[in-house]
Amino acid sequence: MQNTELSHLYKSFKSIFPTAHIVIIDHTGSVIMACENRCLIPQTEQYSGFKEILTVHAPTGGTFYKLSFPLPLSNQLFLYIPSKDIEDVLTAAKMADSVIQLFLSRPSQSVQSVRQSDTMLLLDHLFHPSTAEEDTYTALLAAELGFDMSLPRAVCIFRIEQDLKNPASKISSTRSILQTIHNFAASSGSQDIIGAFGNSELILCHVMGAESDKDIKLLENIYTYINKNYFVSCRIGVGLTVTDIGHYCDSFISAQAVFRYAQNRPDREKQIYYIDDFLAEHLVYEIPEHFFEHFFKNELNYVKATPIAQETIGALVACNMDISMAAEALFIHRNTMVFRLNQLKKQLNLNPFHKDNDRFKLILLYHYFTKKYNGNHSSGEMP
């Protein structure tokens, strides 16, 4: 949130909670705004990024409810309410949270709504081109909105799933989450293109900089903030980086596909998936099946008829060809895994540990087999 928005939010809280003490800090703990008589409350504010309710005691006497709310990009609001002034602190907390969500969701100007509508039209033309001539209109629309389409961008899809078991999930509106993405993206410049397709799929066409670590960190910060502060589950798929208007459709399709590819990798701490990490899966889905049937005919027949081969290959691929980790995943001794590997070498005529080409062929075989027989491999096994 900008300083002007923070100031308006601060004034709103003062009018809603007239006896409360309000403090807003940044991520370093520095005070941005605070009440005049701050000496009357405990000065223990630290940025956490979490919502919480605590009971604290003032140095001059008296008990306060300390309500904490994170604000994008990386600020935090603290609301100290005298315990004698309220009967139900949870109701006060819900009211305060609703006010914050209202500020996050409403556009600051009516012009912004018009711009957002034009931006959605631009995204629709980028992702669903009908004719080559339409690229000219798309380029003109982008120029009118101030977007430099020669910059390298990757389509990032945010898939949002509401927590249906939690009644408070209704508070987490798509517009509010979209505004959160806007706030974070603004820290890296004004050339990101942002919009929403329905209530469950939000779009960020992010300008990829020379330092990829910054782009990764930005997406991780947005991912963490949404999952912490909204009653939703968020996953992010990142597509190809493109610089040509005609290729945005490819980036969008690859960002959608990465969610399907990621089903075989359920052990990731953060559900942020990059197409660059799924080369083998992408090839399997893009190359016609008859090519794989030609090159892997004998191997497919052997693997289909041999369950032990299926689980062995699945564990090796899932564990990045680490024999010890694969053996542990299958609850077998390492020597047993070595024996199985030697059997695979003989039957498939592949040596994946000493030949890079054979290793890649085994990985492709695994993913094609997975695709063809549509198995569930959450345990690291092939079907």
Layout of helices and strands, plus pairs?
Elements: H1 3-16, E1 21-26, E2 31-34, E3 52-57, E4 63-71, E5 75-82, H2 89-105, H3 110-127, H4 134-145, E6 153-162, H5 174-185, E7 193-197, E8 201-207, H6 212-229, E9 232-242, H7 248-261, E10 272-274, H8 279-286, H9 289-295, H10 297-305, H11 307-318, H12 323-329, H13 334-348, H14 356-373
Helix pairs in contact: 1-2, 2-5, 3-4, 5-6, 8-14, 10-11, 11-12, 12-13
Description of the molecule:
The protein is α+β, with helices and mostly antiparallel strands and 383 residues long. It folds into three domains: 1-103, Beta-Lactamase; 109-281, 2-Layer Sandwich (Alpha-Beta Plaits), CATH 3.30.70; 286-373. The protein is built from 14 helices and ten strands. The protein has helices at 3-16, 89-105, 110-127, 134-145, 174-185, 212-229, 248-261, 279-286, 289-295, 297-305, 307-318, 323-329, 334-348, 356-373; strands spanning 21-26, 31-34, 52-57, 63-71, 75-82, 153-162, 193-197, 201-207, 232-242, 272-274. The strands form two sheets. The chain has a five-stranded antiparallel β-sheet with strand order 2-1-5-4-3, with helices on one face. A five-stranded mixed β-sheet has the order 7-8-6-9-10. A hairpin with a 5-residue loop joins strand 3 (52-57) and strand 4 (63-71). Helix 1 packs antiparallel against helix 2, helix 2 (89-105) crosses helix 5 (174-185) and helix 5 (174-185) packs antiparallel against helix 6. The longest helix is centred in the first third of the chain and has 18 residues, at 110-127. It is flat. The relative contact order is 0.07. The model is unreliable at 167-172 and 375-381 (pLDDT under 50). This is PucR C-terminal helix-turn-helix domain-containing protein. InterPro entries: CdaR-like_regulators (IPR051448), CdaR_GGDEF (IPR041522), PucR_C-HTH_dom (IPR025736), PucR_C-HTH_sf (IPR042070). Belongs to the CdaR family. Pfam families: GGDEF_2, HTH_30. Residues 311-361 form the PucR C-terminal helix-turn-helix domain.
